[in-house]
């Protein structure tokens, strides 16, 4: 019996295009000025130290740190320090009304229905926990954060590593078999299934995969059936 649902964001609740064409360029365009202006801020300084720690054989000055961050953005690298810095930039974007987040039309009604049915809802995304909260706080349907019981990012571990899912199950206090993980990435679903979680593969566009071991659906409505 499923008692908790853990959902990915990009490609699952939210279009790839919102992340790749709105969020990532917004942060990329502002990263250099932001680091220059806020390098000494207590929220930012430890993140810049983390960037240096990720590249121990290459001592970086401020310019080098900025270059490294931009290279990670271009490579879509899931580095926690980068993700936290992006989150800080997106916070300003949401607050200034530069954008609201995108959710597929089936997402809000199903999150609400699952929450009302007593299921616990969690997010596991490469975006920082703060970025996840912001995204669900600024949806076209309003603030959906009251529906969620917790958020996990790459500080819990890689989304492709079974240990991350084991940790999440321990933290939220359910047996893996009681947890349903939703994602658009097969390797993430494989990792969750390895520890015993139930899995559903969201294939929003394109072909279904006839040989995959995960249940495949087009949208959240198909899960209610
Ligand atoms: C929290 S929205 C930004 C998503 C993001 O930064 C990202 O890298 C996408 O990761 P996901 O694990 O949700 O596919
Ligand atoms: Mg995804």
Automatic annotation (TrEMBL):
Pathway: Amino-acid biosynthesis; L-methionine biosynthesis via salvage pathway; L-methionine from S-methyl-5-thio-alpha-D-ribose 1-phosphate: step 4/6; Amino-acid biosynthesis; L-methionine biosynthesis via salvage pathway; L-methionine from S-methyl-5-thio-alpha-D-ribose 1-phosphate: step 3/6
Subunit details: Monomer.
Protein's name according to its UniProt entry: Enolase-phosphatase E1
The protein's enzyme class: hydrolase
NCBIfam families: enolase-ppase, HAD-SF-IA-v3
Known role: Bifunctional enzyme that catalyzes the enolization of 2,3-diketo-5-methylthiopentyl-1-phosphate (DK-MTP-1-P) into the intermediate 2-hydroxy-3-keto-5-methylthiopentenyl-1-phosphate (HK-MTPenyl-1-P), which is then dephosphorylated to form the acireductone 1,2-dihydroxy-3-keto-5-methylthiopentene (DHK-MTPene).
Any GO MF annotation of the entry: 2-hydroxy-3-keto-5-methylthiopentenyl-1-phosphate phosphatase activity
Family per similarity comment: Belongs to the HAD-like hydrolase superfamily. MasA/MtnC family.
Details of cofactor binding: Binds 1 Mg(2+) ion per subunit.
Keywords for the protein's UniProt record, in alphabetical order: Amino-acid biosynthesis, Hydrolase, Magnesium, Metal-binding, Methionine biosynthesis
Catalytic activity: 5-methylsulfanyl-2,3-dioxopentyl phosphate + H2O = 1,2-dihydroxy-5-(methylsulfanyl)pent-1-en-3-one + phosphate
EC number(s) reported in the record: 3.1.3.77
A Pfam family matched in the record: Hydrolase
């Amino acid at each position: 019996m499923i008692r908790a649902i853990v959902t990915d964001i990009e490609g699952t609740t939210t279009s790839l295009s919102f992340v790749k064409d709105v969020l990532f360029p917004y942060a990329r365009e502002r990263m250099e000025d932001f680091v220059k202006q806020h390098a000494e801020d207590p929220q930012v300084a430890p993140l810049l130290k983390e960037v240096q720690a990720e590249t121990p054989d290459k001592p970086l000055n401020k310019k080098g740190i900025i270059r490294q961050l931009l290279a990670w953005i271009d490579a879509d690298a899931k580095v926690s320090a980068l993700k936290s810095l992006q989150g800080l930039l997106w916070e300003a974007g949401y607050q200034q009304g530069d954008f609201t987040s995108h959710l597929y039309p089936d997402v809000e009604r199903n999150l609400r229905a699952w929450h009302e049915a007593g299921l616990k809802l969690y997010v596991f995304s490469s975006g920082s926990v703060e970025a996840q909260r912001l995204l669900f706080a600024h949806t076209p349907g309003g603030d959906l954060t009251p529906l969620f019981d917790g958020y996990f990012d790459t500080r819990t571990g890689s989304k492709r590593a079974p240990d991350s899912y084991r940790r999440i199950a321990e933290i939220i206090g359910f047996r893996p078999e009681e947890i349903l993980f939703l994602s658009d990435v097969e390797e993430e679903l494989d990792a969750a299934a390895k520890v015993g979680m139930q899995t559903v593969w969201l294939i929003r566009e394109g072909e279904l995969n006839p040989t995959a071991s995960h249940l495949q659906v087009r949208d959240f409505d198909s899960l209610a059936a």
